[in-house]
Amino acid sequence: MTTSSYEADPAQVRRVLLLYSGGLDTSVMLKWIQEKYDAEVVALTVDLGQPGEDYEVIRGKALELGAIDARIVDAREEFAGEYVVPAIKANAIYGLGYPLFTALGRPLIATKAVEIARETGCDTIAHGCTGKGNDQVRIEATIATVAPELKVIAPVRSWQMGREEEIAYAREHGIKVKGGTEMGVPYSIDDNLWGRSSEGRWIEDLDHAPEDDVFQLVTRPEDAPDEAEVVTLEFERGVPVALNGSRLALVELLEQAGAIGARHGVGIVDHIEDRIVGLKVRDIYEVPAAAIVLTAHQELEKLVCTIHQNQLKPVLDQKWAYLVYAGLWLEPLRSDLDAYMEAANEQVTGEIGLKLYKGSVRVITRSSPNAVYDAQLATFAESGGLFSQAASPGFIELWSLQSRMAWRIRQGR
Ligand code: ARG
User: Fold this and answer.
1) Cα pseudo-dihedral 99, 146, 77, 237, rounded to 10
2) pLDDT for 19-65, tens place per residue?
3) Which residue, 373, 369, 317, is CA-closest to 344?
4) Terminal-to-terminal C-alpha distance of the chain
5) Higher-pLDDT residue of 284, 185
6) What's the rounded Cα separation, in Å, for the pair 108 and 193?
7) HSE toward the beta carbon, residue 369, CA cutoff 13 A
């Protein structure tokens, strides 16, 4: 008995598309699926710009473990252009700190899984998510939406192997285990070109301050250079197009921004998070690119939008981030909101200068042809009649009318 429309009936599983990372869980899975279901496995690894990954090694390992086919899909440009850019336009941050890099990657990974599953004649997609996280929701919701004919299996949710059992299974089946048991349980890592998360171990003790070894991307602020560095970021219609004056392709721009930020200790977030499945969890994020790009975008947007737009947009931004966090990338409300994001970002063209120093990012310069700003009007010096200060008392009289009336009535009681 299955509880959902898309869970696989074990007897029907013939060929499985496995979302394969090369790590312990999915390597054990690659063997386990062959044994348990007597099924063939096609391995798929999606490159979203995870730093330092050797995809040929991963591919080789999959084939060695018996995959009939092992594919690597380079989806970096698509990820940057179709997922990260909309997130930038929506200033996407969930729960005041999380720039959604994992949440943005999952629907793309699931979409690639569907594509390759169809191409290679798979009837089922397998992933390595646990039953406690958001990622299972994001992946399965996407697959069930776009490919109702495909089934899903999530072995980690059902096999009830702990890490020790997995290592034992791996040893028995000739799967190479990096590090071994003596290293203890490692952090659970997920990363792509928009950020990196660590979970597990002492991170689960809320009163345990971060240990240095968790930071593998961002330099600890106390070790960052003593000299501040200024970076400029140029946007066209909400899209970052140039860094320090040189125009770059998106992936390269995000990678370079990330590298500069990482050097200066920028983008460390120690985050308590409300998962969609009800749990409250702590994550350590390293998001140097997002810390720079989102800060700059938000500043430029504020400059070119009116007071009314600036009051509404954060409300819509928050809703956008929540939908994406919650696995509803394909929910129509997300594309409805995107229509607004596009409209608001039409004006977001210009350049922002930021100063990076030992973990901090601070906006120091702004310029835009669309700035709703007139230095002549804003100045403390005489504005030459453009802004009539003589009109102000009349404005204040009417602006405060209701508040004054209410005050008097309440005092009178
Ligand atoms: N808490 C973040 C999220 O829900 C990061 C999850 C990282 N995923 C992982 N499998 N380690 O998006």
Assistant:
1) -60
2) 999 999 999 999 999 999 999 999 999 999 999 999 999 999 999 99
3) 317
4) 68
5) 284
6) 14
7) 7
Residue 383 has pLDDT above 70, yes or no: no
Average pLDDT, the chain: 96
User: What's the count of helices (H) and strands (E) in the chain, helices before strands?
Assistant: 15, 14
What is the 129 CA–ligand 1 centroid distance (Å)? 10
Q: What is the pLDDT of residues 96-118, one digit of tens each?
A: 999 999 999 999 999 999 999 99
The token duo for 151 is 């089934």
- Strand partners of residue 17: 42, 125
How large is the C-alpha radius of gyration of the chain? Answer: 25
pTM of the model: 0.97
286 within ligand 1 shell (Cβ under 6 A): no
**Is 270 one of the catalytic residues?**
no
Three-class DSSP category at 54: coil
Least confident of 35-49, 307-321, 382-396: 382-396
pLDDT in tens, 254-265: 999 999 999 999
| Positions of E strands within 299-386 | 350-357, 360-367
For the beta carbon of residue 371, count every other beta carbon within 10 angstroms: 17
Question: Is 275 part of the annotated catalytic residue set?
Answer: no
How far is residue 20's CA from residue 29's CA, in Å, rounded to a whole number? 9
User: What does the block give as tokens for 49?
Assistant: 């710009």
103 CA closest ligand 1 atom index = 12
Tracing tokens 């990330």 back to the chain, one arrives at 258
- Interatomic CA distance for residues 162 and 262, integer angstroms: 34
User: How far is Cα of residue 166 from the mean position of the Cα atoms in its chain?
Assistant: 29
